[in-house]
Amino acid sequence: MANPLEFFEKIQNLINQEIPFVQVTLVDALGSVPQNIGTKMLVTKEGLYFGTIGGGCLENTAIKKSLELIENQKKSTDFVEWDLDEDIGMSCNGSVKLFFEAYLNKNWDIVIFGAGHVAQTMIPTLLTLDCRVTCIDIRQEWLDKLPKASNLTTLQVERMGSGIEKLNPQSFMIVMTMGHEFDYVVLREILKNKDSQDKFPYIGLMGSASKAITLKKELIKEGFSEEFVNEIHCPIGFKIGNNAPAEIAISITAELLQERDNIFNKKDIPFSHKNL
After folding, report:
1. Among 133, 143, 200, 230, which is least packed, fewest CB within 10 Å?
2. Confidence category of residue 105, pLDDT binned at 50, 70, 90
3. Is residue 81 part of a domain?
4. Out of 74-83, 224-233, 234-243, 253-262, least confident range
5. Of the residues 103, 128, 158, which one is the last residue of a structural domain?
6. Do 87 and 196 reside in the same domain of the chain?
7. Which one has a higher pLDDT value, 225 or 276?
8. How many degrees, rounded to 5, is the angle at CA 272 between CA 195 and CA 237?
9. pLDDT one-digit tens code per residue, 12-42
10. Largest CA distance in the chain
């Protein structure tokens, strides 16, 4: 077996780079098997990444199985027992039991436009969840008020709405800027970069129902399809609590969790916290 320290360093590298991979472990073996029980290997979509469970037909079959897990993303673990003669086509007169663990690194990214009072109370709560948050604003002094955390990125921009094309296309987009003018600019840029229903799967705007009607009419008048414009959630947040920033933040966070579960359960994709 490979050096354990080197093996786990390889795993950490894959996690840091957000590369989906499968860890394959030789759990048990009977007969003539080329590796010891406990041997492991790592497989990415490019093929064998590190380690070995014996090479040859057995390893190739296990790699193929790993690639199916990465491609389908519907199971995070699997256990198989293969007869080396009948299932693999070898002539070793033995059998193996393999355990497959898929680390799909499916992260939940949330982008918040605006670092105002509601964002100041909502972001600390979001940071306790299994997600990564990016907060964008033109006001550095408001961004500086946010807590320091490994899963929070703050971006000060010259113009609200700039750089959207560089964001993770699976990000949840939350718009809560300083006012209507900035909200409209951000929403316009989001829709300009939204070329399918899968891109930016959730777009939320903080505001009243009347504000939503006005903004949507303006966006449709500018030429955006009703289909995409109607994907904008406004008002965001459950109808609970009062208008205090902390209570608004809680209601929005609750809705985001519900939308996250609905979207990913529909796609049958497990979250990173179920896999890592």
Report:
1. 230
2. low
3. yes
4. 74-83
5. 103
6. no
7. 225
8. 60
9. 888 877 788 999 999 998 877 767 889 999 9
10. 73
Structure tokens at 51: 């380690």
Both 138 and 249 in one domain: the answer is yes
End residue of a domain, out of 38, 71, 103 = 103
Residue 76 identity: S
Domain holding 26, by residue range, is: 4-103
Rounded distance between C-alpha atoms, residue 119 and residue 137, angstroms: 11
Chain-centroid distance, C-alpha 136 = 19
The reply to whether omega before 34 is within 30° of 0 (cis) is no
Specify the pLDDT at position 35.
74
pLDDT of residue 17: 77
For the chain, the average pLDDT equals 87
Give the amino acid at 71.
E
- What type of residue is 6? E
pLDDT of residue 14: 87
Whether 166 and 196 have beta carbons less than 8 Å apart is answered as no
The secondary structure of the chain, three-state, reads CCCHHHHHHHHHHHHHCCCCEEEEEEEEEECCCCCCCCCEEEEECCEEEEECCCCHHHHHHHHHHHHHHHHHCCCCEEEEEEECCCCCCCCCCCEEEEEEEEECCCCCEEEEECCCHHHHHHHHHHCCCCCEEEEEECCHHHHCCCCCCCCEEEEECCCCCCCHHHCCCCCEEEECCCCHHHHHHHHHHHHHCCCCCCCCCEEEECCCHHHHHHHHHHHHHCCCCHHHHCCEECCCCCCCCCCCHHHHHHHHHHHHHHHHHHHHHHHCCCCHHHCC
